[in-house]
Amino acid sequence: xxxxxxxxxxxxxxxxxxxxxxxxxxxxxxxxxxxxxxxxxxxxxxxxxxxxxxxxxxxxxxxxxxxxxxxxxxxxxxxxxxxxxxxxxxxxxxxxxxxxxxxxxxxxxxxxxxxxxxxxxxxxxxxxxxxxxxxxxxxxxxxxxxxxxxxxxxxxxxxxxxxxxxxxxxxxxxxxxxxxxxxxxxxxxxxxxxxxxxxxxxxxxxxxxxxxxxxxxxxxxxxxxxxxxxxxxxxxxxxxxxxxxxxxxxxxxxxx
Amino acid sequence: xxxxxxxxxxxxxxxxxxxxxxxxxxxxxxxxxxxxxxxxxxxxxxxxxxxxxxxxxxxxxxxxxxxxxxxxxxxxxxxxxxxxxxxxxxxxxxxxxxxxxxxxxxxxxxxxxxxxxxxxxxxxxxxxxxxxxxxxxxxxxxxxxxxxxxxxxxxxxxxxxxxxxxxxxxxxxxxxxxxxxxxxxxxxxxxxxxxxxxxxxxxxxxxxxxxxxxxxxxxxxxxxxxxxxxxxxxxxxxxxxxxxxxxxxxxxxxxx
Lengths: 256, 256
Fold this sequence. Notes:
2 copies of one chain form a homodimer.
Chain A: E1 2-10, H1 27-39, E2 46-47, E3 56-66, H2 75-80, E4 87-95, H3 101-104, E5 107-115, E6 128-129, H4 136-144, E7 148-151, E8 166-177, E9 180-187, H5 194-207, H6 215-221, E10 236-242, H7 245-254
Helix pairs in contact in A: 4-5
């Protein structure tokens, strides 16, 4: 048996998320269908992260086990031939059968894209349109409070069943683009909806509806109800997954 | 009765083209649904051009007649509130009830977008991926033969029922972009599939499968079967429609 690791990118617009659901188009469902057509039997795939409906991935990892004698590097080519153009396997390789990409990976980077001006049909589902003027200095001031180790109960879905809500945020950058803004957040891990609630909170700060200084108290309150709704899924990109501490360290060095 | 002209843009990816079809998502169908919900009765909309399945429009025009006493400029706002993010009414205004945007407009510009390198899920349906290396000088040489007044039987769908296949091409430019190519074609009018057949022909020339010099004979043969299949719809954008000769003249002056 060989464990194969896939590096995957997908446009989430026409997917009901990663996780398999009957009669829905999901990323897992599409890749498992491709794997089944090669193996002639069902093969389960395990992702590093289960992205939500309409969320994109610039880099996602997933692994599966195979008994077929196929060159590990060839899997990307074989599967791409069976997948639609909105998913692409960037790379495939063999990994240690003891390595589980969800439990052993070290952290992630998400990017949230938004734009100003007239709404564009060509950005629909790919970037979030913001009509308000934003005060970026205020947003950056608020962003500082998220960095470090915190209990993120206030910034995760009330439906979260995971007990330990402490996560470490390494970086939270707000980047001005030609006609918009990108929020890049790097953390040890993220709770359900956490990035999209932090983004919508920062937007409220930028619009002047929240004070940057109250962010500390907001986190300490551990109360989800005080914070705004999640930001739309279409602006969110899973950008990096660190398979090892070394990869994470290199990213931090390159991005400081 | 007031005739309202709409300037429209849409991302064609999730549309089965402009023209209404039962149980299909079409641009006409979506706009007529929005108009019906305002008028409480069916209102027909007439486009300048019926774009095919998955073809995009940066600028499309269409008009409808209304007896409602609504400020003509307000229609864009009213309809945008009822339309999905992949269609957008850029502008609305009153026009002469004798003006028919399909019969009275003077010409059009189409743009075809393609890119090289690794296929990207985020360009899927928006630009056509080309894996071959292209000789752009050869393509430009072939492009010259299309300019002027010709019978374009060789470059239109065999299904075309229109008898007069003579059209005038004003410009045919091949533009290199950061990681791809755009073909911009301006004409008095276009036959069914004409732009997409010209594009696929130029790609064959670029790949070295056709000689630029044989383009003249190819046009003169008036034989559709000698030419390649249509290029994929997702790379094609209806970019401009000239409502008057003056608009067309201005465009030519600005783009020479």
